[in-house]
Amino acid sequence: MIKCIASDMDGTLLNSRQEISELNREAILFAKEQGIEFVIATGRSYDEANGVLESSGINCPIIAANGAEIRNIQGEIVGTMGIDREHAATIINLLSKLDIYLEVYTSKGKYTEDYEKSISVIVDIFHTANPEIPAEEIRSTIKDRFVKGFIQTVNDYGEILSDPDCVVYKIIVFSKDHEQLTMANASLKALKEIKITSSGHNNLEINHINAQKGIALENFVKSKGITLKETMAIGDNFNDLSMLKIVGHPVAMGNAVPEIKKVIANHTVKNDEDGVGKAIYQVLTGQPAK
């Protein structure tokens, strides 16, 4: 019997327009009405994740930044796992030498050193993946991240690292140059106490070794008196694998990367076809969504 459902956001719960479909929303609310815990497990910051959920009328606990931060349904922080400052400085310096664009997620928000590059890089990557969406519409959405304070600009990442009250949760790099990403990955692998994953073909995500969705989800369900066997998890990419591998009912999205589909036997349809909602209805009712 399923007592907890954990879902990734990008490429999973959200469609290509970064929205929660009506069927997905209804399925989540249906599950919650049955007394089932629903938790988001995302690479996003809490604010970015919660903003989308609130607009759809969904209130739930959130595992943010790949497990570096856990918040309860009231939005209170109940767990964190940051990257040591010295390690963070080493990672940032190494990536800077490769001239690769990066953003830093912290307990005080998300930061970039380059406002214009932040917009141009993300627009370029997102438009390549979603050519049907006009570039200007994407640009407007990305700029909205700054307006809403989801991402802030600093002159130097050293400002963040010198703040004793600021915990570095995650460092993410973006590049369409796969050779550059491969070089970055190879360089980072020499470092200890970090976990390197990805949520897309054009990025790398660096966390503390213990900041993983699987570890955070295990802690979450344990706090609720639920076993992993009684837990369902839905995802599409490498940063979802740690939770998909440990739950009793893992589900890979129809649009999941091939490596995830090979490991996870249960598949649902794509994120643009209400994959999350259909998977929830199927497992809870034994019937396809109406």
Q: What brief labels describe this structure?
A:
Hypothetical Protein, Haloacid Dehalogenase-like Hydrolase, Chain: A, domain 2, six-stranded mixed sheet, Rossmann fold, about 290 residues, HAD_sf, HAD-SF_hydro_IIB
Give unreliable regions as ranges. none
Q: What's the total number of strands?
A: 13
Fourth CATH level, the homologous superfamily of the largest domain: HAD superfamily/HAD-like
Distance between the termini: 22 Å
Strand percentage = 15-25%
Assign an overall shape.
globular
Structural class: alpha/beta
The residue fraction in helices comes out at 25-40%
GO cellular component, one term: cytosol
InterPro entries: Cof (IPR000150), HAD-like_sf (IPR036412), HAD-SF_hydro_IIB (IPR006379), HAD_sf (IPR023214)
Pfam families: Hydrolase_3 (PF08282)
Keywords: Hydrolase
Model description:
Keywords: Hydrolase. One of its GO terms (molecular function) is magnesium ion binding. InterPro entries: Cof, HAD-like_sf, HAD-SF_hydro_IIB, HAD_sf. It holds the Pfam family Hydrolase_3. The chain has helices at residues 9-13, 22-33, 46-55, 85-97, 115-129, 135-147, 158-161, 178-188, 213-223, 241-244, 258-263, 275-285, and strands at 4-7, 37-41, 62-64, 69-71, 77-80, 101-106, 109-112, 151-153, 168-174, 194-197, 203-208, 231-235, 249-252. The chain is of the alpha/beta class and 290 residues long. It folds into two domains: 4-81 and 212-285, HAD superfamily/HAD-like (Rossmann fold, 3-Layer(aba) Sandwich), CATH 3.40.50; 85-208, Hypothetical Protein, Haloacid Dehalogenase-like Hydrolase, Chain: A, domain 2 (2-Layer Sandwich). A seven-stranded mixed sheet has the order 5-4-3-2-1-12-13, sandwiched between helices. Strands 8-7-6-9-11-10 form a six-stranded mixed sheet, with helices on both faces. A hairpin with a 2-residue loop joins strand 6 (101-106) and strand 7 (109-112).
